[in-house]
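Researcher: Please generate the 3D structure of the following complex. Treat every line as part of one assembly.
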Amino acid sequence: MYAKVKHFLAQSAIYFLVAVLTICCLLPFLMVVSGSLSTEEDIMNYGYTIFPKNPTLLSYRVLFQRPGMLISSYIITITVTVLGTIASLIINSMIAYAMTRKTLKYRKFISIYCLITILFSGGMVPWYIVCVNYLHLKDTLAALILPYLANGWYIFLLRNFFNAIPDEMKEAAKIDGAGEFRTFVQIIIPLAKPALATIGLFIALMYWNDWWLSLMLIDSDKLRPIQYLLRIIVSNITFLNSQMNVPELRNSKQLAPTEGVKMATCIITIGPIVLLYPFLQRFFIKGIMVGAVKG
Amino acid sequence: MNLSNKVIAYNESKNKLRIINILFNFLKEIFKNKTLYAMAVPALVLLFLFNYFPLFGLIIAFKDYQFDKGIFGSQWMKPLFYNFQFLFDSSSALRAIRNTLLLNFAFITIGVVTEVGFALMLNEIGCKWFKKTAQLITFLPYFISWIVVGVFVYNLFSSEHGAINGLLSSLGMREVDWYFTPGAWPIILILINRWKNTGYGCIMYLSTLTGIDSSYYEAANIDGATRWQQIRYISLPLLWPTIIVLVLLQLGKIMNADFGMFYATVGDASTLYPTTDVIDTFVYRALRITGDIGMASATGLVQSVLSFILVIGSNMIVKKIDEDSSLF
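Model: Done. Output below.
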């Protein structure tokens, strides 16, 4: 009886602790949602809270009064994510397929060549000089895509997936007269679709969340991805105040919702990820577990 | 022509032949598998441009870098280690190295404890939907960019309208000017790191736990072992290999700070640098803000060389423990 009570208490403690930690993970999100719906006065007086005291959509209305910048940033991010993900999948899976073919004499060399890129890095300074001085990527759309395209990790992951496909399949296709490239497109790709989808999700997430490339290589205000725009809105007060010059506010006595607009931009930035996340989560978990297996 | 000259000439022509032969075999192989090699070329070229080229570019640490002359055209420094003098003269570079090591060490040790602990707790939860929801929500922060996390941190810690100060004042305590209190930031950064990565990190441990044969626990049950004893003597020992391998792989990267985290949360709050300035932010500032390429590249080279040694070392140990988990 005593043991049972003790077990029950321990179980309840675990449920309680997990529930508390889970809520802690969620709190910052709630605070941003609430901040974006609060009036500037409430934020000034009470600070950020979990629930808005006087809910208002003013911040969103101000933000959408001049949506040009937001839309162009969104277009940049979507273009970069779509182009980057597709190109990256094609480039990485082509080399990964070549590495699985035993007829290739130099495949050992190719895999060491890829491994070295995972292990060693020249660091930020030479990378920056190469991108700016030699490849002339500064202020180009390519700067937001090219540097991440080839990735040693994904090459090894894809190679492992392709290795799991029996060689007989490839040989059979060859006997039927298909060349290597046709075998790859018509046999391998369809068979590896789940793997490609999983890795594609990771690549898409990387491009969507990226701001490092724009921080380093983009000065032009026409090429700002959404994450970088958020950074500018949050850290540059002059820029933020210039956004407040809208008819909505000129005739009203309300305080300009500078804090609210920051939060609303934040919501718009993470919106698509948070909405898609529940459906995609299990693919990511699968990807992490496969990724832990050696390349 | 005397004999020795003949021998030399003969050897030379033999060497030439050998080189021609190697070249011929190489071309034959390339031609034979031309489609496959062509498929590999785009990735090989991109990796060369963005990984190998910068690796060679590390030599600029020994050069007086001039923008118009490029990496190879710039003059060598006299003395060669001139750029490194700064590094050891200025206390801020050494401070950045110290902060990187200490903070990363804290992230790794506290990280593994929280991740294993959380995985063990999740594993004890019988209620399916509860477990699923908890995992769903705790994994979410991993998907959020550091810029957005920076906004979250600002909401919590800003001195005028931060939620933490709001809480402190409603409890009748004195408000704290967080962005002027460097002493608090190692703890704040650890909390941020845990908030973002615990859900992600525990996935590997949780999958190891669910993979444990249930007959172990059944046998222990029959022997009258309590749940705690089962965790202590079955779950933990079986988790050890995973824990050791993951920790070692992280130790290999201990010289590399998570630039995004520091840039987005601390940013240019220079009052916090004593405890929060790390190698990556230090190099970034030297490169992009003060424009001191010499110092930036020297610090970067030190970082790259130490990382190289650590990666090789940690991987050698991993290989001894578990051959399959090593990187190479």
